[in-house]
């Protein structure tokens, strides 16, 4: 988790990850997006590869990089522990209100069904 957090602390590496979120890209196309040297971009890609956030595949004379989000799992679970405590309460209240709405609809439906059955009995008698 520490190496993933360290890797995403750099804005260039975050931008590379955002680029790769859409689709895999060759190293040259990644490097073209930055004003820094290609070796500098290669160092950023190496850091991302070593912590498992990107995987590279040789293709001819180039390497294609693709995003692997699985190393984010442990970090996001850890961060979720710092979410606002009210967020859980809001979710619980939303579930309760949804359950109440469902019960109101069920009661209205049952009431309509009972009223219709009573009307039929009165009309046939």
Automatic annotation (TrEMBL):
Gene3D superfamilies (alphabetical): Winged helix-like DNA-binding domain superfamily/Winged helix DNA-binding domain
Compositionally skewed regions (Basic and acidic residues) per UniProt: 112-125
Disordered: annotated span: 104-125
Coiled-coil boundaries: none
Matching Pfam families: HTH_5 (PF01022)
Domain HTH arsR-type positions: 1-87
Keywords: DNA-binding, Transcription, Transcription regulation
Keyword Transcription: yes
Cited InterPro entries: ArsR-like_HTH (IPR011991), HTH_ArsR_DNA-bd_dom (IPR001845), HTH_MetalResp_TranReg (IPR051081), WH-like_DNA-bd_sf (IPR036388), WH_DNA-bd_sf (IPR036390)
This protein's record includes keyword Ubl conjugation: no
PANTHER family with a match to the protein in the record: TRANSCRIPTIONAL REGULATOR, ARSR FAMILY (PTHR33154), TRANSCRIPTIONAL REPRESSOR SDPR (PTHR33154:SF33)
UniProt-recorded name of the protein: Putative transcriptional regulator
Species of the source: Actinoplanes friuliensis DSM 7358
């Amino acid at each position: 988790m520490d190496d993933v957090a360290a890797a995403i602390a750099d804005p260039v590496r975050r931008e590379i990850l955002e680029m790769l979120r859409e689709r895999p890209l060759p190293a040259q196309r990644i490097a073209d997006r930055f004003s820094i040297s290609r070796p500098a971009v290669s160092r950023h890609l190496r850091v991302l590869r070593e912590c498992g956030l990107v995987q590279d595949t040789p293709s001819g004379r180039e390497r294609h990089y693709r995003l692997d989000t699985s190393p984010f799992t442990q970090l996001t679970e850890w961060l979720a522990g710092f979410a606002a405590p009210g967020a859980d309460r809001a979710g619980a209240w939303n579930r309760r209100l949804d359950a109440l709405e469902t019960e109101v609809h069920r009661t209205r439906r049952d009431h309509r069904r009972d009223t219709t059955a009573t009307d039929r009995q009165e009309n046939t008698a």
